[in-house]
Predict the structure.
Amino acid sequence: MTTYRQAGVHQAGADRHVERIGPLVTSTWQGEVVGGFGGYAAGVELPAGYRRPVLMMTTDGVGTKLELARRTGNWAGVGYDLVAMCVDDLVATGARPLALVDYLAVGRLNPERDAAIVASIAAACRAAGCALLGGETAEHPGLMAPDQVDLAATALGVVEFGEEITGDTVRPGDVILGLTSPNLRSNGYSLIRAVLSDDDMMVFGEELLAPSLIYAPEVLAAIAAGGVHGLAHITGGGLPGNLIRALPEACRAIVDVALLRPPEILSVIRKVGDIPEEELWPVFNMGIGFCLIADPSAVPGLRQALSPHEVTAIGEIVTGERGVEMRREPHRRRRSSNPS
């Protein structure tokens, strides 16, 4: 006779895991949440004040940064990586994050590790003002090694119809504001693992596993302050691959490389791997986690709204072929001929 337990699935352990994470999940709930913990689904009411609400959704994961977390046993920050990847994608459209559901897949349940992961997700949701409605923890014996973990989430947001930020209003003369990222967030870890030895990754593990910042609440405040024409979450693809998503035709983003301050760990990675500079731009954020494209006259108010994040004017929009140009030398601002 063969039992489910003998096949590697620990049903009693799964029940204990759900009981353990219940308070963590419900700690993110506010009055908009509908339903109870442990049901088949939960809901969230639309906030008051929207005339024609548009629901926006996005999904993402942590990626191969999880492998470094597995090797070091440091799971305290992966929830911030997960939530940031989702809610900062939402806010890049102008949407307010409302709710998130997560998916945690493991080779074998590990009560302390799995609770630490959910605790980090819940903490990040509280920081983002986003309810963690629930999720799924799935044990996959035979498909995954006992200590393997994968993590993904889907987030829901809302924006008023017609107030989505698409970049259509971006124009020559706009300034590009960069929100500093003191770490690598959750991108480029496949390259990192390809060039760093296991010993190197253990030495630099704390820095490499530093959790992502969450920009959504302050970006929403900046949108409310006015003058924001375009937004870009700087994730996979780096500055060139993400700023272009906020540009209309005939607008070109010029970024002054001299104004960027990449994290020090990138110097180590580049040296050890003998990585050419041009290979870094589409892989890493180079010290900028989020960009706002805005009217220059709005910058003082935006800086105030974006506090406590460090804000740097890293470039401008000019007339030209749609694209992103990384300039190696500072340039003099061009005067826009575009009428206001």
Remarks:
- Residues 333-340 have pLDDT under 50 and may be disordered.
- Residues 111-128 form the longest helix (18 residues).
- The CA atoms of residues 61 and 156 lie 15 Å apart.
